[in-house]
Write a structure and sequence with these properties.
This protein is α/β, with parallel strands linked by helices. The chain has 12 helices and 8 strands. Strand 3, helix 3 and strand 4 form a beta-alpha-beta unit. It binds ligand LTNE7NMQ. The site of ligand LTNE7NMQ has 9 residues, from strand 8. This is Dihydrodipicolinate synthase family protein.
C-alpha cells in the first residue's frame, strides 16, 4: 500500500519571535499528531509555508520532523508513521535539489505541485515528474493545486504518471469550484490496479462529507489531531461522527474559510497553546476581529486533548 494513505497531517512550521523555524514546537506538533493516531505527516507544504524557507531551514525542518515522528509513540508497535516532504519549486532544478535534500533528511515520500511562474502545459508537467523519478527513488504524491497552477490533473494524466514515474498518490482539492461529483471515483477508475491513493484536501468539504477517499490531506489535522482522527475513524467505519464534534469542526472550518489560509492556521495554533509568530511575509497576521471569531470557536471545542 502506498504510504500516502489515511489521515495525513500537514503541520504549520512554527516560527520563533525572530521568524526562524521553531523546531521544538514543530516536534511537539508532530509527536502530538502521531500520538493521536494520524497515518502520516507532510511538512513544508502550503500549511508549512515550505516555499518561504531557504535550503538550510528546510533541511532542519525535515530532520526535526523525521526525528520527532520516529521518537513518537507508534500505536500497536506499528511501523513508524511516514514523514513526507513537499518539494515544489519554481524550476525543475530547484525541485530536484529539494527532493534530494528531503531524501537525505530521511523523508519517506515527496509531495509535488507542478508550480511555475508561467502555468505549465501537460507535457511540461509530465517532464517534471519524470525528472523527479529519475533523480530520487521515493514515492511521490501529485499535489493538484489546479486553481493556483492553472493546470488541472486529468484521470488519464494521473494514470500515465502512475505507470511511468514514481507517482503513487494524488492530493486533489475537494473544494475546487465546479468539481464534478464522482471525481474520486473517476481518478480511481483510471488508475485501477496501479496502487494509487486518491486523496482529498479541503477541510470544509471533508468535514461536511466529501466523497470517500483513500486519504485526507489536511493542515488542521496537525493542530486538532484527536478531533480529525475521530472523524476519520467514524467515516471509515461508515458510522455517523459524533454530532458535537462534526458541528464544531464545521464551525471551525467555516471561520477559517474566511481568513487567509496559512495566517489562519498560525492564529489558531496560538489560540490552542502552540506558540508561533505569524507566517513570513507577504502573508499578514490575522486581524483582531478574525482572531476573536476563532477564539470563540476554540472555546467551544468538544474534544479534550
Ligand atoms: N493544502 C494543505 C493541506 C491541506 O490542508 C497543505 O498543502 O498544507
Amino acid at each position: 500500500m502506498t504510504s500516502f494513505h489515511g489521515l495525513l497531517a500537514y503541520p504549520i512550521t512554527p516560527l520563533a519571535p525572530d521568524g526562524a523555524p521553531d523546531l521544538d514546537t514543530l516536534g511537539h506538533l508532530v509527536r502530538g499528531a502521531v500520538d493521536a493516531g494520524v497515518d502520516g505527516v507532510v511538512v513544508l507544504a502550503s500549511s508549512g509555508a515550505g516555499v518561504t524557507f531557504d535550503a538550510d531551514e528546510r533541511d532542519a525542518v525535515v530532520r526535526g520532523a523525521v526525528g520527532a515522528a520516529r521518537a513518537a509513540h507508534s500505536p500497536d508497535g506499528a511501523a513508524p508513521v511516514p514523514v513526507h516532504v513537499a518539494v515544489s519549486g519554481s524550476s525543475t532544478r530547484e525541485v530536484l535539489a529539494r527532493a534530494r535534500a528531503a531524501r537525505d533528511g530521511g523523508a519517506d515520500g515527496l509531495v509535488l505541485a507542478p508550480f511555475s511562474y508561467l502555468p505549465l502545459d501537460e507535457r511540461e508537467v509530465v517532464a517534471l515528474f519524470e525528472a523527479v523519478a529519475a533523480a530520487v527513488d521515493l514515492p511521490v504524491c501529485f499535489y493538484n493545486r489546479s486553481v493556483q497552477t492553472a493546470y488541472d490533473l486529468t484521470p488519464d494524466a494521473l494514470a500515465r504518471l502512475a505507470r511511468t514515474t514514481t507517482v503513487t498518490a494524488v492530493k486533489d482539492p475537494a473544494s475546487t469550484p465546479a468539481r464534478p461529483t464522482g471525481r474520486v471515483a473517476a481518478l480511481r477508475a483510471a488508475t485501477a490496479g496501479l496502487g494509487v491513493s486518491v486523496g482529498l484536501s479541503g477541510d470544509a468539504a471533508i468535514v461536511d462529507g466529501a466523497e470517500a477517499a483513500d486519504a485526507w490531506h489536511t493542515g488542521l489535522a496537525a493542530l486538532v489531531p484527536a478531533d480529525y482522527v475521530a472523524l476519520r475513524h467514524a467515516r471509515a467505519a461508515g458510522a455517523e461522527p459524533d454530532p458535537d464534534l462534526r458541528a464544531w469542526l464545521h464551525d471551525l472550518t467555516g471561520v477559517l474559510a474566511g481568513i487567509r489560509p496559512v495566517s489562519g492556521l498560525h492564529a489558531l495554533a496560538t489560540l490552542l497553546g502552540v506558540p508561533t509568530a505569524p507566517p513570513r511575509g507577504p502573508s499578514l497576521p490575522v486581524p483582531p476581529d478574525d482572531v476573536a471569531r476563532l477564539r470563540e470557536v476554540v472555546a467551544r471545542r468538544p474534544v479534550a486533548t
